[in-house]
Amino acid sequence: MYNLSALYHPITANPAGGGEYLPGRLLQPYIRCYWGSGAQPPPQRTETIIPDSCMDIIWEWDERTGESSGIFCGINDTPFETGQAAQPVPVQRFAIRFHFWAVHLFVDEPLTEVLNVHVPVEYYFRTFRKELGDRLQHIRTMTERIAAAEDFLLRRLERGNRTSDGMMNAVHRLLTSRGIMTAGALESSSGLSSRQLERLFRQHIGLPPKKVADLIRFQNVWLDLYRSPQTKGVMQDIVFTYGYSHQSHLINNFKKFAGKTPLDALSHARR
Predict the structure, then answer these.
(1) Cβ–Cβ under 8 Å, residues 215 and 51
(2) Are 143 and 181 in contact, with CB atoms under 8 Å apart?
(3) Per-residue CA distances from 67 to 63, 137, 236 (Å)
(4) What is the pLDDT of residue 151?
């Protein structure tokens, strides 16, 4: 697969928070990162999760009892809070964060209804627990867990799940345009009708093209804001660059995805 990750770098609400590990070269077209934690109680503070257009497999197990669970988190299009009061139970976590265009190459079931879902990992990955999940709790270091995950993922790629060249061309065009593209232009660039694109996107990504475009635009806006050395003037530049009608339009659209105004989101990320 062409390495689309070179065109698109989605980030979280707290990009400097650390804890992300990049995949090896062979998996860079498919995996955004790995993340996890050692044996520790759940965090006492809450964390805002914003739409990053990715999907995650999260494996968690009780360090004391060995009881484990695997969750598949689909694409979210609204922010939510995670975390709770600490409990005296040490837990371990390991997660694989997939780029949205690549998940269908690893699953056993079509990616329907993935918007804002959190389901047992077996719902889409029938053999995940047997082939990887049960092994992780017996591996002690993040480096070794990543190595086990990469071996698992590369073997799944060898099964040869099929993709659609037309859909991938459309994804490429959405990424290069930073989510700013009309339906007609997307049809022309992919060689597919709007009905065909809708069907393929829902089958392989779980969302319609317009929703994917909206998430891509939001993530590019957030990345530009976060990387900007100053906030003065940057808002108006973003209004122009990303096709918003005015600054209030930008702020309202950003709040829909981030739960905060752009300036509040920046203040939270940089504190």
Answers:
(1) yes
(2) no
(3) 8, 9, 51
(4) 96
Checking if the pLDDT of 84 tops 70, the result is: no
- The set of residues, in sequence order, having a beta carbon less than 8 Å from that of 251 and lying 6+ positions away, is 261, 262
Long-range own/partner contacts, residues 163-166 (CB < 8 A, 24 or more apart): 163/1, 163/104, 163/105, 163/204, 164/200, 164/204, 166/190, 166/191, 166/192, 166/196, 166/197, 166/200
Q: Which neighbouring-strand residues pair with 35?
A: 20, 95
- Show the tokens assigned to 216: 């891509």
Closest alpha carbon to 73 in 48, 42, 40, 96: 96
Q: What are phi and psi of 200, to 5 degrees?
A: -70, -40
Q: Which 8-state DSSP code applies to residue 262?
A: H
Cα-to-chain-centroid distance, residue 180 = 19
pLDDT for the residue 1: 72
98-148 pLDDT, tens digit each: 999 999 999 998 888 899 999 999 999 998 888 898 888 888 899 999 999
Partners of 94 in beta bridges:
36, 59
pLDDT surpassing 80 at residue 216: yes
